[in-house]
Design brief:
Order of helices and strands: HHHHHHHHHH
Strand content: under 5%
Distance between the termini: 53 Å
Length: about 250
């Protein structure tokens, strides 16, 4: 048992720096986005913003530990856990896909910003340091651990055992189905923040949420399935970098 736990534990240890940094700066980013009324309400329940940052950091570390450990075991069980290394051809393909995703994300300003006034106002401010760090560390690493390594792997494992248990290996169709389902869940997971930001969900906002997030989720899941979780993380981080560079320089 201890032997089986060694690799997942080492993997979790590697995640912890990203979890600490990501949790801290994501909490700062969230605090910066709250209205004065929301901040006053939060401060009525906790001592200071620093307490909120600490709580967010601890929560993210727990996410990394739990989802990272069990996600590793599930990924290994369904045959998707590969050695953490990077190969030239896979990196080139990942970089090309990442560039396309980054440009797609920037369309949020050019297309939806013209249709939804609040989005246009959002892009009026350049991305802050906390936005950059949070999106790269939390978005690029922790979200991939939760949604691809754990949720996608768990979904694939469940579908395999429920419908194809006689097969020794997980069918490709099961992995693709798990990718689609986890991508939709990934997009749905952004709905609460969308409601917080805009106050309500309209059909256009719903379409925007699922378009921008599910397309990315499908691409990250594809990279995870074909090459390994490290490529999904690399692409997710890179897509945020490309998007925010376009935002900082051209929007």
């Amino acid at each position: 048992m201890l032997k089986k736990a060694k690799k997942p534990l080492l993997f979790v240890l590697g995640l912890l720096p990203f979890a600490v940094i990501g949790g801290f700066f994501t909490s700062i980013y969230a605090w910066e986005g709250y209205t004065p009324e929301a901040k006053a309400e939060i401060l009525g329940q906790i001592a200071s913003p620093q307490t909120l940052y600490l709580m967010g950091t601890v929560q993210t570390v727990l996410y990394a530990a739990v989802f990272g450990f069990f996600g590793y075991l599930l990924s290994d069980k369904i045959g998707l856990m590969r050695p953490i290394r990077f190969e030239k051809r896979a990196v080139i393909l990942t970089a090309a896909l990442t560039l396309v995703l980054g440009v797609l994300l920037s369309s949020d300003s050019w297309i939806f910003g013209k249709l939804i006034p609040q989005i246009g106002e959002l892009y009026g401010n350049k991305p802050s340091v906390s936005t950059w760090i949070a999106s790269i560390t939390y978005g690029g690493v922790i979200e991939e651990v939760m949604m691809r390594l754990f949720v996608m792997s768990l979904t694939a494992f469940a579908l395999w055992k429920l419908f194809f248990r006689k097969k020794e290996e997980v069918p490709t169709g099961v992995l693709i189905s798990a990718n689609v389902l986890s991508a939709l869940l990934f997009a749905a997971g952004h709905l609460p923040s969308t409601i917080t930001m805009f106050g309500a969900i309209t059909p256009l906002l719903l379409f925007r949420c699922f378009l921008l997030n599910s397309v990315g989720g499908l691409c990250f899941g594809h990279l995870y399935r074909k090459y390994g979780i490290q490529y999904a993380m690399l692409s997710h981080m890179g897509a945020h970098i490309v998007w925010k560079l376009i935002w900082a320089l051209f929007i």
